[in-house]
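step=encode ok
step=design start
structure_in=
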């Protein structure tokens, strides 16, 4: 199976994708890992590459192209990034959306990055607005449209173990022979 895990910053994508992949004995590919590899290819630090990405749209496109190609060619994989469900499209067996209220996500980000919650909240709001506009401009994706996902989970409602239990239950209950069809990913322009 190819499973995607998507969602906004601070929702628990990386934590849950890694745990799910481990529980299923699948590989885990993270958009963040691809981003770091692209930075290495260009001989840039992450900070330098992040700065460059703000002005060079090809960086986003290179990352998204790698996500799309990974989805097309791999199996027994958990693919995780903000856009993995959209980029995997028709190749994904299950597309999962994780989320939590903005204030909770800001608290998680503040703790993870050792900054104030107010700073994390402001940065997250700014980042989300910027990314939402870019995704729409690049590919015609409405990031707020969650209709392509098979399962949506508010990670603020359950702890890490319980969230993993929910995800595993969905994966284990999935029977391809009973599947009447996933929601098609339509209107996306995969131009990299």
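sequence_out=
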């Amino acid at each position: 199976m190819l499973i995607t895990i998507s969602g906004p910053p601070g929702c628990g994508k990386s934590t849950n994708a890694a745990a799910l992949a481990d529980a299923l004995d699948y590989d885990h590919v993270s958009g963040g890992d691809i981003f770091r590899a692209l930075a290495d290819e260009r001989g840039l630090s992450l900070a330098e590459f992040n700065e460059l990405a703000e002005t060079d749209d090809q960086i986003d496109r290179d990352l998204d192209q790698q996500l799309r190609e990974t989805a097309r060619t791999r199996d027994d994989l958990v693919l995780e990034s903000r856009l993995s469900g959209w980029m995997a499209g028709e190749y994904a067996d299950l597309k999962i959306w994780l989320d939590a209220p903005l204030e909770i996500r800001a608290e998680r980000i503040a703790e993870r990055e050792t900054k104030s919650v107010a700073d994390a909240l402001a940065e997250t709001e700014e980042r989300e607005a910027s990314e939402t506009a870019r995704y729409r401009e690049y590919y015609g994706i409405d990031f707020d449209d969650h209709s392509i996902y098979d399962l949506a989970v508010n990670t603020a409602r359950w702890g890490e173990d319980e969230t993993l239990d929910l995800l595993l239950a969905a994966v284990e209950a999935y029977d391809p022979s009973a599947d009447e069809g996933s929601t098609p990913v339509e209107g996306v322009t995969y131009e990299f």
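step=design ok
step=annotate ok -> The CA atoms of residues 26 and 165 lie 16 Å apart.
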